[in-house]
């Protein structure tokens, strides 16, 4: 997530000072709990974060971006193409549990609050399957070739 004073102020205003730890890092469990409490909370957080992320991308001059909020923020029409990375539910659950140190139920709750992976895949122009078994390099090479990039 883009780190900006605007986002920090906005999240602290919505969630409280507990949104950030004493060292200034985002307190993910607190923010996740707030987000998952209601759709209104999710929309409120999106209203704080999305405009800053969009503005940051526009100012960056980059030709590409990684964005978990692409469809939520309606950015799909601002890019020439979308490459989605997918993985089976069980793999995603294990990765989230390990990354965030949370239980399976919390990880599942988080996944269910997002746009369904199959919808993202249908809307994307290209897919990379990151299931831990399928080699990534050939998939990336194939997409790069389709896009006209060669090594």
Structure, explained:
By secondary structure, this protein is mainly α. It is 54% helix and 5% strand. The protein contains seven helices and two strands. The protein has helices at residues 5-15, 28-37, 39-60, 89-100, 104-112, 117-123, 136-146, and strands spanning 83-86, 126-129. It has a two-stranded parallel ribbon. The longest helix is centred in the first third of the chain and has 22 residues, at 39-60.
Question: What's this model, at a glance?
Answer:
By secondary structure, this protein is mainly alpha-helical. The chain has helices at about 5-15, 30-35, 40-60, 90-100, 105-110, 115-125, 135-145; strands at about 85, 125-130. The chain has a two-stranded parallel sheet with strand order 1-2.
Keywords:
151 residues; mainly alpha
Multimeric state of these chains?
single chain
Query: What is the residue-averaged pLDDT?
Result: 90
In spatial order, strands of the major sheet run 1-2
User: Helix fraction?
Assistant: 40-55%
Count of helical regions: 7
- Unreliable runs, pLDDT <50, ≥5 residues? none
Strand content: 5-15%
The total strand number stands at: 2
| Most strands sheet | 2 strands, parallel
Tell the overall outline.
globular
Ends apart, CA distance between termini: 30 Å
């Amino acid at each position: 997530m883009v780190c900006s004073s605007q986002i920090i102020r906005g999240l602290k205003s919505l969630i409280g000072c507990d949104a950030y730890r004493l060292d200034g890092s985002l307190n993910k469990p607190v923010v996740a709990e707030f987000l998952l409490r209601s759709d209104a909370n999710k929309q409120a957080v999106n209203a704080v974060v999305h405009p800053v992320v969009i503005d940051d991308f526009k100012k960056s001059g980059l030709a590409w971006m990684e964005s978990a909020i692409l469809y939520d923020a309606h950015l799909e029409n601002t890019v020439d193409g979308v490459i989605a990375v997918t993985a089976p539910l069980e793999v995603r659950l294990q990765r989230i549990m390990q990354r965030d140190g949370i239980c399976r139920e919390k990880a599942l709750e988080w996944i269910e609050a997002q746009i369904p992976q199959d919808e993202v895949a249908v809307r994307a122009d290209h897919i990379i399957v990151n299931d831990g078994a399928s080699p990534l390099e050939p998939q990336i090479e194939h997409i790069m070739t389709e896009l006209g990039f060669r090594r």
